[in-house]
């Protein structure tokens, strides 16, 4: 290969900087090993497939997982459920969200955050994200009405929200806080685990999350009454077993976590810190390797409310325009670097409110408008209601940081980024 060839962008016919594509971005999923196998076999051999009983005397894996999760997050309670969405629905019931209650959600989050509000009978109100790509406390304040009951900070793409400002707002206005930690399990803000700030914290263990049992979720709280309510909602049998007074019982459904999932999630939880350490190390190297070109070109990295608490699952930087971001991402992909932008009006992506079609159109299963029929004021969703979020997300270039990237992969990633940003930045 000539010097000229290696400097030429791969998209223009040069040699790709990276020899092979990124490893699959399933941090915990790719780490599944003997411990997960042993846990599953243990459950199967004991025929203890259900958390509350089985033929033998073995302990429930779901109960063990709850205890381990609560200990890890520093909360008094945890409730294991079947998905992240289930954790949000149960958590929303736990904090008492009901018909017509407004819940403020960010413009950038997986649609499940908003549809869980709808499932609980609440009304999602969408607020802007700021340079962190997370809930902007100033816009949250503007969106508070007499009907607002809760704020849902979502720690998207691994990074912590501005929890100080959001908790202060919640206190000032008497609002509940439900944290969606689906994408930032193991992250923290000022040294405190994400999920332990709000009245309730909700996690997903779905396959592309940092740790996984394929599907699964967890609710954490330190408020006994929130725990009781969450528990009753997620499990009628459990509620009865906990022997609440008949007067205390509320209608519940069934989102109980199966033992087989808990058997996988337990060793995964033990892997969490190691995975995050590996991603942090790689992200640090990538950022350091492109600092010179980003400084010279005035390319800004995504802001961090607390960089120490970032789980480092990705690196994000902003270009001057959406066109430049799209070109840079395309050029990076040609270098074998799995890059993308975070919003395009033409590509359906349920992570951005403008594409939440059923929410935007207030379409649910019941005829007559679902929870919106209980709205205490007129609710309207418009494509352009959060213009700053769309601008930031459209200009963002996003790269996964897999814990499986080798030193060579990282070096080649840095080389490719330098090549592309030098030319297109
Ligand atoms: C931010 C966010 N919230 C909620 C969810 C829902 O989790 P699950 O897919 O486990 O229902 C996800 C993931 O899919 C997510 O990314």
List the helices and strands and how they pair.
Blueprint: H1 3-7, H2 34-46, H3 61-73, E1 77-81, H4 84-94, E2 102-106, H5 111-119, E3 123-127, H6 137-143, E4 148-151, H7 163-173, E5 176-180, E6 188-189, E7 192-193, E8 200-204, E9 217-221, H8 224-234, H9 236-241, H10 259-297, E10 300-301, E11 314-318, H11 322-334, E12 339-341, H12 357-360, H13 387-395, E13 396-400, H14 407-424
Bound molecules: pyridoxal-5'-phosphate.
Can you tell me about this structure?
The chain is of the alpha/beta class. It has 14 helices and 13 strands. The chain has a domain at 34-268: Aspartate Aminotransferase, domain 2, CATH 3.40.640. Helix content is 40%, strand content 12%. The strands form three sheets. A seven-stranded mixed β-sheet has the order 1-9-8-5-4-2-3, sandwiched between helices. A four-stranded antiparallel β-sheet has the order 10-11-13-12. Strands 6-7 form a two-stranded antiparallel ribbon. Helix 7 links the parallel strand 4 (148-151) and strand 5. It is globular, with a radius of gyration of 22 Å. The chain binds pyridoxal-5'-phosphate (PLP). Pyridoxal-5'-phosphate binds next to helix 4 and helix 5.
